[in-house]
Amino acid sequence: MMVAPKTKRLRAIAGFLAMAVIAASCTSAGESSVEDSTTAAPTTVAPTTTAAPTTEAPTTTEATTTTVETTTTSVPVAAPDEQALPEDPGALAEAITEAERAVRDEAIGAEEAMAWGRRQQALYRVLSANPEWATGVLEGVGPDVLRAYNSNWVARQNLSALVNSTNLATSLPAWRLNAPLPADELLAFYKEAEAQTGVGWEYLAAINLVETRMGRIEGLSTAGATGPMQFLPATWAECCEGDVTNDRDAIIGAGVYLRARGFEDSVDDAIFGYNNSQRYVDAVKAYAEVMRSDELAYRGYHAWQVYFLSASGLILMPEGYEQTEPIEVDEWLAANPDALISGP
What we know:
Number of domains: 1
Distance between the termini: 43 Å
Number of helices: 13
Mean pLDDT: 82
Low-confidence stretches: 1-15, 18-68
Strand order of the largest sheet: 6-7-9
């Protein structure tokens, strides 16, 4: 099968990596503390006795004792993705351990798992901004999540290396950012593709994560690749059927393509054919390993958001962003100042 030239395919992913994967700085969320409000019970009134005239038997009038129960208003706990970010390696290790466990907790529902996934992503952003903490964090994370931590850190380092931070964009792309399909629906597509092609679902999910944050990004890459799995039109026409912009068709198409590239014989070679970079291969394999070890880890990745590392700083790209033409970063930030996570 003919594939896109190396340089064109590498540029295709680089355009997305600059905004969807790499975060070179971080910020701490503000903390709001509200004290509990307690209403104290009034003092109990002692009984009052009124003495009767001496010619009559004494009459006792008992006072009524009134008791008011204490009412306590509890302070809601901040959502996981709204909590302050750690400021030292030990605290970061504890927070990563908590988040990694939470996304794997079957007792936690889908909505809460999304919030923990967003926090998980923010915590690895903190580590990227403070790489000198890596050893301390490694020593502090829980043994049950150590492999996941190592894999996520390896993936992040490899993808960061693909971005040229000395030539950052001054404009935001002509894209639309959508909410992804529900996690269960996408997972069903990955597994359907695995059943049809023999390509492990976790590799397809990892590619979908790296390429478009699981379908959040709609638009052309710098090399003209399109759809949630980022196919060049010529490559799609040669290997695949259906609609390249449809999540199910694109995921199955990616499985077909990887199988044709020899996935059964060499996972590395097949993924390298998808994007001609060994760092890309290592990152995809690292994320896939996490999901293969525990399927519930997928819930965390499904929640990861889109960040854009621009010349003006790190920007959180919101769902609903839509531009038909590129727009200057500073112009867009003037209307959306809260999207700026940190300065240059």
